[in-house]
Amino acid sequence: MKYSLFKLHPRSREEVAIVRDGQCMEKKVSVLFIATKPLQIMMAMVIRDGFKTPVECHLHVVLDFLNADDISKRIKSHDDGWKSVTDFPTRQAAIAGSTGKGYSKIFLDSDVGVRNYISLNEIKRSQPDVTLSVYEEGCGTYQDNYYPALKAALLRLLGIGERLGGCRLTDELWIYEKYEYLSVFPRSKVLIEEIDQSLLCFIKENTDVLNKIFLAENLNVAENISSENCIVYLSSWEVDRRAIASLQEKLEDCYVKLHPHIREFDASFAQGFTRLVPASIPAEMLIMELAKLYMHIVIYHHDSSVERYMDLNNVEYINLG
Asked: Residues with Cβ < 8 Å from 262, sequence gap 6 or more?
């Protein structure tokens, strides 16, 4: 009795098949997603729901953003698309936690830097057949300025990722804009899969479950509207208090949403028409809700990805850099 195991080309989204005495028996592909912030959780859900054949999906949540442990619990309760949801303190621990689990593919939020290279090298050594796939990470996916030119060249020479998709161990890149990526990195050899469903459409179609996961249903925006138009300030890892002070001078509703990695912050600056939105609620979901209620919205941000994903007729974006 002979058994043979073969794996389809990494480009394929089909299943692994086992051939026994000439008869094909299907075996579900088991894949893992690693997410370190709310946007990545949603992006992982987009990719997961786009698989053409049944795939057993697992999620490792890195507890590195505000209320991450509570969000992870709500994912387990409200999103039955995951076979398992497991928490880890760091990305490296989340990667190491995949060892011995038999995953055929691991989706990573990043392959940039020495630490990630060491972690991925360990995985490849223990599971040489695993496919390592980096998935869409907002504007950072298409940026070439992670490191100064000289350091980037050295990392590239060593096979260490100096940009997303740049690590020599990475097999695939799952992104929205293939040709934009190749225009920035024309020498890239990584296999690129384009994600089919836009994040905007995904949020529209999955508002109920996303509200339960991120508690966006508790925003109660409609109860506090005092103007036809509104402004929104989205912080980066640091908060520009001068920008907020300037926006508060406008006689319009003002929403301030801090970056999800900011765990503690003095909110005493909020006054007048200013409302502080929970940092763990994705900015994309906040914008979607506000767009239903206001005639016109102006979003002030610092190189945020929301402008890339949330193209709505009544929303204007101003990048503060």
From this structure: 66, 235, 237, 239, 279
CA distance 306 to 317: 9
Q: Could you tell me which of 207, 171, 191 has the C-alpha nearest to residue 31?
A: 171
229 CB neighbour count, 10 Å cutoff: 15
Q: What is the mean pLDDT of the chain?
A: 87
Q: How far apart are CA 172 and CA 206, in angstroms?
A: 27
Q: CA dist 149 to 60, 102, 117, 152, 168, Å?
A: 33, 38, 19, 5, 18
How many residues does this entry show for the chain? 321
Query: From CA 216, how far away is CA 214, in angstroms rounded?
Result: 5
Consecutive H or E run containing 154: helix 149-158
Look at strands 296-301 and 229-234 and give their pairing.
Answer: parallel
Q: What is the pLDDT of residue 6?
A: 28
**Averaged pLDDT for residues 113-136:** 96
Residue 18: which residues within 8 A CB-CB, separation 6 or more? Answer: 3, 4, 5, 24, 25, 27
Highest mean pLDDT among 17-26, 194-203, 217-226: 194-203
Write down the residue that tokens 């509703």 correspond to. 253
